[in-house]
Amino acid sequence: MDYSPLRTALADVVAIPVTPYDAEGAVDRAAYRTLLRRLLDGGVKAVTPNGNTGEFYALTLEERRLVTELTVEEAAGRAAVLVGVGHDAATAVEAARHARAAGADMVMVHQPVHPYVAQDGWIDYHRAIAEAVPELGVVPYLRNPLIEGAAIARLGEECPNAIGVKYAVHDATRFAAVARDAGLDRFVWVAGLAELYAPSYWAVGATGFTSGLVNVAPNVSLNMLGALRAGDYPGAMKVWEQIRRFEDLRAERQSANNVTVVKEALAAMGLCRRDVRAPSRPLPEPRRAEVAAIVEGWSV
């Protein structure tokens, strides 16, 4: 198969939509569609329903399927749909097959949630998913610094549809080495730690980055992408400075407020409720005002 269109879509801003809830705590379908249209109209070319910013681990099986279907329907070919899958291997395979049936283009495989991860077992896990959906692109989400480039290279040799890696280890030097050991050109390397890490990861091989901030300000994220593609690192760092406080708030206490801050910004803009599910929690009042002030300064 020709995976080049999917590779092109990954080498971009890969948006991670939030999952809004209604007053009863259910997925707010209308608000979700509105948020997706805003991303698409803003120029986003790849979206990941059921990502971490979408509260993947707080959603039920039925809700994850719903979000997948809503995303494919709303995207309607305007953007590539990269569905987050995970949990045990059988559940991930089932979710990948559902994504295929719904009309998605790719699956992003969440970091395996297990206290004991062998490198060969990591390969086995991803191979099971990739072989179940050979028509879809497969993108491992790598947060484990112990997974070596050689393991990723083996996955690529055995699974042609493993086309990209979302790399989210807080170490640009480690990323540079892993990407080269795995195959810098074999995979599309997506900086999985969003805008604050995008310039450093771009400098050593990334060609795309994920974003939760893009839910709030698509133009800001795309401005950074444009600067990076042009090799304008001073320009990229101007965006970096603009968003630094917002992203620092999300990263506090090991990213405890990753989703909360984004939803608070969207609530301040009247786009969805601020509600998040446990173990996340809404911001206290003083921080809400700070988030609203930051967003107001972006003129979105």
Polypeptide structure, described:
There is one protein chain. The protein has 300 residues and is an alpha/beta fold. The chain has helices at 4-10, 29-41, 61-75, 89-102, 119-132, 149-158, 172-182, 198-203, 218-229, 233-255, 258-268, 285-298; strands spanning 13-15, 46-47, 80-85, 106-109, 137-142, 164-167, 188-191, 208-211. The protein has an 8-stranded parallel beta barrel with strand order 1-2-3-4-5-6-7-8, surrounded by 5 helices. Helix 4 (89-102) links the parallel strand 3 and strand 4. Helix 3 runs parallel beside helix 4 and helix 11 (258-268) crosses helix 12. It is globular. The protein starts with a helix and ends with a helix. The model has no long low-confidence stretch (mean pLDDT 96).
